[in-house]
């Protein structure tokens, strides 16, 4: 291993830098890493300052986003959802007789990752396997979590005591995909149930938009994933799997059109972000003979604020204005298949499962245990130290 292929803060097995770790690792705790969200009106602006720290965004502009949270009493649903996910993981671990505690910490609001890692260390649990509540590869959905792990271990002085590995990105694991299959199947059954022709129905798979420059840098630098990098490629691959699975249950679904769209962009108009926007695309659909649309929150593990506001409010309003019947399908949440799948990913690392035996539903997987060099660079800030990946 050369000096530029070091994996900092890793277990001895993962420190070798292999893309897939095929030897058992005796983890003694699970770190559930979330985004975090405000839990009251007074929390909203401080939370948004945390989210945007380092970008110099004034409070007046933050208020433009704050009204989404204020609409719901200043309470994001995400912390309650992560409490439920933590409880569901603990129940599934107990069912399988896996004696691993789950420590939950957020990047942007209490409970913070710093406290979760300190709690684990105080309990003597120093070999952690992390699950981030994001399935895809990009700076904000993977590398930023890994950078936060490194920052926490450095700031707390625990870098020489605690190791943090991370389960692979799970975009194409059956546990994550199956709830979307079920949701799209039910949504299309509803839209097609009154005799509407399949050609009049369209499926929009929606995910969070990110800057185009960041998208192009998502995934390993030595692979060409096409426009939108690994981030867009992973979403498109999963959407294709979902539609093929639904068509096996509802044959007419094979004639339903679908595409990947984006939502929730927050950058300046001068900065290119991934397009098309979900609401813009909805407005265009009637011109092509579409009368009904299913909106699928493919980029989200649960009903985050972006789902409740941007899809349930803005996208559904856009559909009504366009005269379209519309349904929004569900997210995985604490679906038993999803919870079981996350524990499968932990067991994969506990057992050192060979890569040839790892389940995955697209040709892009199984994704890497140890992120590759140059993966998911932040174009604005460059590379910072990150756990669970080769430097930089």
UniProtKB/TrEMBL annotation:
The record's subcellular locations are: Cytoplasm
Identify the Pfam families for this entry: Ferrochelatase (PF00762)
* Any one Gene Ontology cellular component term annotated for this protein: cytoplasm
| Statement: the UniProt record of this protein carries the keyword Metal-binding | yes
Listed A to Z, the keywords are: Cytoplasm, Heme biosynthesis, Iron, Lyase, Metal-binding, Porphyrin biosynthesis
Residues holding Fe-coproporphyrin III: 76, 145
The annotated pathway is: Porphyrin-containing compound metabolism; protoheme biosynthesis
Q: Which PANTHER family match?
A: FERROCHELATASE, FERROCHELATASE, MITOCHONDRIAL
**HAMAP family per the UniProt record, alphabetical:** Ferrochelatase
Tell me the protein's name: Coproporphyrin III ferrochelatase
Species for this entry = Microbacterium mangrovi
Q: Recite the lineage of the species.
A: Bacteria, Bacillati, Actinomycetota, Actinomycetes, Micrococcales
